[in-house]
């Protein structure tokens, strides 16, 4: 049985906040590498942790079945070293559902695009 570990990460803009980020072990083969998923308890945590890993915001998979970042196995190992938790399938699904619900709220509250020409 794996022991889960959580690490407090305090980016400069945060104080005493816990960031809970999870990685799965999907190992999806694409372009000669194995890829996994990075999810979190909130979009803010997910994007902050992705930034710590050096991921670009445009790599955020918002149009997928659930919001996440795709990461290579080597980046997964780095994520684990700096505090990500190896999530069980149930934990990944729970976070994925929460992220999807949060993203839908954010998306629906965003201003509509201005139509200049009809």
Notes on the protein architecture:
There is one protein chain. This protein is 34% helix and 17% strand. With 118 residues, it is an alpha+beta fold. Strands 1, 2, 3, 4 and 5 form a 5-stranded mixed β-sheet that branches. The longest helix is centred in the C-terminal third of the chain and has 21 residues, at 89-109. The model is unreliable at 1-16 (pLDDT under 50). It has one domain. The protein contains 3 helices and 5 strands, in the order E-E-E-H-E-H-E-H. A hairpin with a 2-residue loop joins strand 2 (28-30) and strand 3 (33-40).
Give the SSE layout.
Elements: E1 21-23, E2 28-30, E3 33-40, H1 43-52, E4 69-72, H2 73-81, E5 85-86, H3 89-109
Parallel strand pairs: 1-5
Antiparallel strand pairs: 1-3, 2-3, 3-4
Question: Which descriptors would you attach to this protein?
Answer:
118 residues, alpha+beta, five-stranded mixed β-sheet, 3 helices, 5 strands, globular, disordered N terminus
What would you call the structural class?
Answer: alpha+beta
Order of helices and strands: EEEHEHEH
Shape: globular
Report the sheet-strand fraction: 15-25%
Query: Strand count, sense and closure of the main sheet?
Result: 5 strands, mixed
> How many strands in all?
5
Estimate percent helicity: 25-40%
Oligomer: single chain
The Rg value, from CA coordinates, equals: 15 Å
Total domain units: 1
Mean pLDDT: 82
Q: What is the CA-CA span between the terminal residues?
A: 60 Å
User: Unreliable stretches, pLDDT < 50, 5 or more residues?
Assistant: 1-16
